[in-house]
TrEMBL record:
This is YggT family protein. InterPro entries: CCB3/YggT. The lineage of its organism: Bacteria, Pseudomonadati, Pseudomonadota, Betaproteobacteria, Neisseriales. The keyword Transmembrane helix applies. The keyword Ion transport does not apply.
Amino acid sequence: MLANALDFLIRNLAEFFILVLLIRFYLQAGRVSFKHPVGQFVLALTNWIVLPVRRVVPPWRNLDTASLLLAWVCAFLMHLILLAITPWPFIFGSPLSIVALVLAAALELFKMSLYLLFAATIGQALMSWIAPYNPMMPVLEGITGPFLRPLRRMIPTVGGIDITPLILILIIQLLLGVVVASLEPYILQNVRIAT
């Protein structure tokens, strides 16, 4: 019972922090202003750790590599701790276990990025109908734009309606439901157990 509560707490806190770091990464990559309340919230939650790490890990082009690295480290530690609190005697020092944890952390970033893109796409689609001039629109467009623009070049509007958000949502669901759902348990099964 206690292990389940700890698992829930650790997973949710870690995933929240990973998500905030990824939002920071994608907002900077999309050149979205951090003057928006969402940007200010993200900076307030992450500056304490991103700014010191940025001195060691500088940005590459327009990408905030410090935020991305910290999100990966957080995902790595989350998986390490979650496996450590299980009753199974995992061998974390084996090369295969380390590789499995490295890949699990990378897959976690991919999964959380898909969740973020999914939420931003739905939010943008709804706001484009309800409140197209909402101050949140530039933030959402900064996240979804790099994915919707190529789709818009390939898929024409249908009856004057842009269906690319629907196509993007279907692609995200396919990736989450097939790729991530099958890879995640496979990767974690490769963490070695003492025999």
